[in-house]
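Please discuss these two lines.
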Amino acid sequence: MNILTFEQHEAPAEGAAGILVVDNTVDPRSLALDGVQRIDLNFPKFTDGRAYSQAYMLRRRLGFAGEIRATGDVLIDQLVQMARSGFTTAVLRQGLKADAAQRQFDRFKGFYQGDAAHPAPHFAEAAEHA
C-alpha cells in the first residue's frame, strides 16, 4: 500500500480526467468507470466505515483495477484493513507520519481468510502451492 502524508496529497481539480471523487453515500454500482484510473473514497470520520464497503465492491464485484485512494480522517490503525478491502493508497490525516505506518503492516504477515487483494483463503492458497 502506498502511504501519503496529508501534505503529499494533492486533491484533484474539479472534473479532472480519469479521477473520480466519490462521496461515501454513493453506490459504486452506479458509477461509470470507463477511463477512470483513480477513485478517491472519503472517510469523513474514522468511525465511518462505508468507504471500506465501497472499495471492496469496486475491486471484487466491479473489477476495478486502478488506484483506490483513502482520504479524510485516515488513521494508521486502519491501514491494514484498508489494504485488505482494496485500497491501494491512503492519505493520512494531518499530523500523522508515514514512516510509522509501515510498522502496522509488519505486525501482520498474513491472514487466514480471503480479502479483496487475495480472495482465496489461506488453506486454499497453501493447497495450491503444495
